[in-house]
Amino acid sequence: MPQSSPLSWVNVPVNSDFTWHNLPFGIFSDAKAGPRVGVAIGEDILDLAALRQLGFLMHLPPEVLENAVLNDLIALGKSTTLALRHTLQDWLRADKPTLQPYAPQILVSQKEAQLHLPLKIGDYTDFYSSLEHATNVGAMFRDPKNALLPNWRHLPVGYHGRASSIIVSGTPIHRPLGQTKADEAEMPDFGPSRLLDFELEMAFVVGKSTTLGQRISTAEAEDYIFGLVLFNDWSARDIQKWEYVPLGPFLGKSFASSLSPWVVMLEALEPFRSPGPVQEPAVLPYLRFDGLKNYDIQLEVAIQAQHQSPQVVCQSNFKYMYWNMCQQLAHHSVNGCNFNVGDLCASGTISGPQAHQYGSMLELTWRGTKPIPMPDGTERRFIQDYDTVIMKGFAEKDGLRVGFGEVRGQILPSQPA
Amino acid sequence: MPQSSPLSWVNVPVNSDFTWHNLPFGIFSDAKAGPRVGVAIGEDILDLAALRQLGFLMHLPPEVLENAVLNDLIALGKSTTLALRHTLQDWLRADKPTLQPYAPQILVSQKEAQLHLPLKIGDYTDFYSSLEHATNVGAMFRDPKNALLPNWRHLPVGYHGRASSIIVSGTPIHRPLGQTKADEAEMPDFGPSRLLDFELEMAFVVGKSTTLGQRISTAEAEDYIFGLVLFNDWSARDIQKWEYVPLGPFLGKSFASSLSPWVVMLEALEPFRSPGPVQEPAVLPYLRFDGLKNYDIQLEVAIQAQHQSPQVVCQSNFKYMYWNMCQQLAHHSVNGCNFNVGDLCASGTISGPQAHQYGSMLELTWRGTKPIPMPDGTERRFIQDYDTVIMKGFAEKDGLRVGFGEVRGQILPSQPA
After folding, report:
1. What average pLDDT does range A71-79 have in this prediction?
2. How far does A45 lie from chain B, in Å, by closest CA?
């Protein structure tokens, strides 16, 4: 499919993330109306609520499209949402301009729209599924010769995170206050975190509910995954370090986590399936899987200091994940834990094997010992006030591109205690 | 207030948990109608939705009372819910039988009603706030001479738990499957948990939302606590042991947590305020508090084997908590983490200083080394299939009793993999 022949009557610039192949779902509002369901295409949003009002998509309940979250639409089931995706692809084809006369009513420029958190997230889980990340952290904080903990290669380690503080891209974040203790200090101290970090992650959105006691096999898992987003699991390393033994990360994470606004359906990523790392030793039967369950998605993180241009600090890829999403879901449900539509499961920091592929400042600067030079001559060990962290991701193959846009967030100074 | 002169025209048996002083809120249904808001009194439920239909409580929106959860009622704010409490107390007084003629329409026998999970729980946090519990666990698994970790006396350690699998009292639970590894084994194994335990806890319900970045001081905290429930934080010790380093408990907990159905308002517990343990060393300023923030609530756990009578195995008290609820909330929000009405914060296992006051089988049997004899001649190290665990709690002083009823749950065998 050569890029020279446009696939859609909607203008899609070269290298747009939001191609005719993609059609991710999100929630937007503008001067015309409040939050509602839209689909990104090129630099526009196709307004599904407006389409419904014009007499299209009449099989969908209007309240599902005139909605401040995607949950009710997703809950209609994959047969419905996939059919919707195919209908929209059909209507947007360059050679089938059924909708083109309605363009002024149904297309909204992304520049003129506000994007909202697209989901009501019931439960949020964060995994720890990158071998390189777990190895780096283990080498820094424990023993470089035994960096991985004994359980790591046997199960996808994960923990429950805070759902209430998940925010949409663009929402600024005040540097968190908290308790920290310097290694040499006798007593803890209180104040703004000094070691504020990002974690480059992707997250999948659960698209089908289960009942308590129900298990999801690796073979069934894809049916339970609606789509994916970019995810910045902001981390206050100094708060986390002091609090996390023995029950895990808590306030070092729960001040905010940032989500990209467009949910890319799993099916849009079909052409980008990729083999994952070989799992050795062999996993237990409930974690075995057939076929390609990783995805080749190029990821990038940039830091933009105030009034400066962004500095790319990391280039990684989702394909590096040791544990894939199907294994994560099979493990998460093996004890009978139930899921609701809109639950979020994040990957954990996605680090690759090379040093420029590390997905956090902790690893990129190796605990601050290798600062990163910035365009303005300063350097970064961790994130400073007024820095904006920008994560981007896209998959590309044979002229086909499916992107996630970006998740960005600026760090503002702490609010006075 | 002598028990001989009844306070209410509704019959309240001696030693009832649901006295005129208490009036806890819950969600019930019966043959007449679906889930709605009720208040427990004696052996009955006062049907608030029916009261509204009869022309009482007209200041409350009907959808708040004809509702499957308490969240919308609680979200009206404490001034409204406290005024409602006082109105109901007034209407239920023995000397003011305004409502008595309507008794057949507004009173439902608890025996004929089904009780439901009373809340839509957005986020659930579990603390670890009993000094005795943390000391016991530390002594068993780490070093008896340095049982407490360095952070424990400086902050209320906590972690995020799974909200979706919180169930109401009476819901049976299948023994979870999961990965475990025996100390001497080289590889992990998969199967039903062999070390299934309860944890005796109480939990508070957040009654007022905050915005991201907002902190709650210890002085403000009570305004954010709607009420309390009993909570059984079921724990699969063998699954937990293998999975929990470094990111904390996950599948060892997320298979189920059980909640008592009646939410006792914090104000109903006013007469039972109690001093807490002395905190030494002194806590950081944001954790300091004035006044009595602990509550003298007697707690009891019984195990009932199938077709046997219950065997009390633990008698503890909520007053033993080292970290109080106001400190928990101040700590939880100090980084700006936001709360929604209906969020749940559990105490962690409530162990007292004496051996019969330990709030888990892990501690009561000291890792299984001191089994508990049962009435049928068997013994228990952990919970066996078909055992029912029953937790009760009440406060009593000067003839005044405010109780929580019970939270019970039966363990059924694992479902086949």
Report:
1. 98
2. 28
Contact: A163, B123; criterion CB under 8 Å: yes
Asked if the Cβ–Cβ distance from B177 to A415 is below 8 Å, we say: no
pLDDT at B1 over 50: no
Residue range(s) of every CATH 3.90.850.10 domain in chain A: 124-412
Q: Which CATH code of 2.30.30.760, 3.90.850.10, 3.20.20.70, 3.40.605.10 fits the domain covering A124-412?
A: 3.90.850.10
Please tell me the predicted confidence (pLDDT) of residue B99.
Answer: 94
CATH of B25-116, one of 2.30.30.230, 2.40.30.110, 2.40.50.140, 3.30.70.1400: 2.30.30.230
Contact A153, A279 (CB under 8 A): yes
Task: Say yes or no: A377 contacts chain B, CB-CB below 8 A.
Answer: no
pLDDT at A1 over 60: no
pLDDT tens digits, B302-354: 999 999 999 999 999 999 999 999 999 999 999 999 999 999 999 999 999 99
Give the model confidence (pLDDT) of A132-170 as tens digits: 999 999 999 888 999 999 999 999 999 999 999 999 999
Interface of A with B in 298-337 (CB under 8 A): 331-332, 334-337
What is d(CA A201, CA B68) in angstroms, rounded to the nearest whole number?
36
**Closest-CA residue in chain B for A181?**
B151
Q: Which residues of B touch A178 (CB under 8 A)?
A: 334-335
Burial class (CB in 10 A: 0-12, 13-18, 19+), B14: exposed
Instruction: Using the CB atoms, write b or e for A7-28: b if 16+ within 10 Å.
Output: bbbbebeeebbbbbbbbbbbbb
pTM above 0.90, yes or no: yes
Confidence of residue A4 (pLDDT cuts 50, 70, 90): very low
Q: Given this model, what pLDDT does residue A5 score?
A: 57
Distance from CA of A319 to the nearest CA of B (A): 23
Check B338 against A243: CB less than 8 A apart: no
* B336/A149 touch (CB, cutoff 8 Å), yes or no: no
* Region of residue B222 (left: phi > 0; alpha: psi -120 to 50; beta: else): alpha
**In 10 A of CB B273, how many CB atoms?**
14
Which amino acid type is present at position A359?
Answer: G
| B72 token code pair | 């919308």
Contact B246 A149 (CB under 8 A): yes
DSSP per residue, A227-246: EEEEEE--EEHHHHHHH-TT
Q: Which pLDDT score is estimated for A416? A: 82
The pLDDT of residue A100 is above 90: yes
Contacts of A259 in chain B (CB under 8 A): none
* B239/B251 Cα distance (integer angstroms): 7
Residue extent(s) of CATH 2.30.30.230 domains in chain A: 25-116
| A244 contacts in chain B (CB < 8 Å) | 246-248
**B68 interface with A at CB cutoff 8 Å:** no
The pLDDT of residue B5: 57
pLDDT tens, position by position, A28-69: 999 999 999 999 999 999 999 999 999 999 999 999 999 999
Percentage of residues in chain A having pLDDT higher than 90: 96
Q: How far apart are the first and last CA of chain A?
A: 57
